[in-house]
Amino acid sequence: MNEKRLVVACFGVLVAVALALLAYRFVAPLTVSIFLYYSTRRYHKALKRLHLPSRARAAVVLASLAVPLILLISYAVVLLVVEARHFITQYALLDVAAANVSWFAGIDTLPKLSVHGLYGAYQSGELDPFIAFASDHAAFLTNLVSEFFLDLFVVVIVTYYLLVDGGRLREWLLRFDDDAIVRDYLEATDAELEAVLFGNLLNVIAIALIAIAAFNVYNAVAPAPVEVPYPALAGALTGLASLVPVVGMKLVYLPLAAITAIPVALTGRTSLLVYVAGFLVVAVVVVDTIPDIVLRPILSGENTHVGLLMLAYTLGPVVLGFYGLFFAPILLVVGMTFADTALPRLLGADADGDDALPAAQRRLDDFRA
């Protein structure tokens, strides 16, 4: 290697290190972007039937994900605040908190959830404890909000341009082909990632629909005091919770059962708890267990083992934190595809694999008695 090539190589290494450090800083949003890209790529391709350009299709995909998710979360937060206020008022929990927690000592009543009510509470000083808390932790809250919106911006931009220019990136990677090993490995990895992660999205949608139907059927049978509140919202949140490993949908239907059972138990109508137990049976069997047994193997990709995939979803967040939920299955697919596609050829195995006949059977004499 001459001096010019050495200088260029050193410069390339420095640039690669700088990019790697930058990617590590944003590893969480970049991982989520790759996850979303492979989850929605088939949808992006399907929109070609509408004769839309690639950029317009990418915008439609992101809007299709963002708008329902924002509306769902906003609706859930509003309902949670309204129901929490009603529960606190009904059972006089504010008086108990004021008697035992000094921070609530100056709060006698909760303000009405309206612009006029909140402004009146601010004028009367009822919001002073909350304002003081926000002022004392302003730096932390500002940093938390800014980090969230920065990561969200990275996710949107990277996902958008992966959908638009993913083909160009693929062609650039295939330029490093060596005896078709790189091409075969990248194509197999690309196809398996799409199968696994798109199957994940389908699994969320299917579980949400099953949960909505199951909760509505339960409400049709159960008495009004033990009905599931907002069954459509609860079912949609159950589908989203299926992404969370180990606990998964239990994050939704167990609190729902508690919310339904507590008012009944406090009023002494314990006979109605039989319906709550029935709801738990429906949630565990119909919503949680059966879809996990039936749907997950079907939607888990073509070659990736279902058990390993479940371990990846479980252990990823434990080892890497929240983004491990997205990073671990991607890493599993990349590693398993390498072991199945590229590694045997790098170690000198026959490219034909199991379809090839043993060398001894290629001689006619071996077939004679």
Task: Put the structure in a nutshell.
The chain has 369 residues and is mostly helical. The protein is built from 13 helices and no strands. The protein folds into two domains: 27-175, no CATH class; 178-347, no CATH class.
Structural class estimated from helices and strands = mainly alpha
Number of helices: 13
The helix fraction, in percent, is: over 70%
Cα-atom Rg, whole angstroms? 28 Å
Give the ordered list of helices and strands: HHHHHHHHHHHHH
Total individual domains: 2
What is the β-strand count? 0
Mean of pLDDT: 78
Biggest pleated sheet: none
Shape category: globular
Strand content is under 5%
Cα end-to-end separation:
61 Å
Task: Report the uncertain regions.
Answer: 353-364
Keywords: Membrane, Transmembrane, Transmembrane helix
Protein name: Htr-like protein
Pfam families: AI-2E_transport (PF01594)
Membrane topology: Multi-pass membrane protein
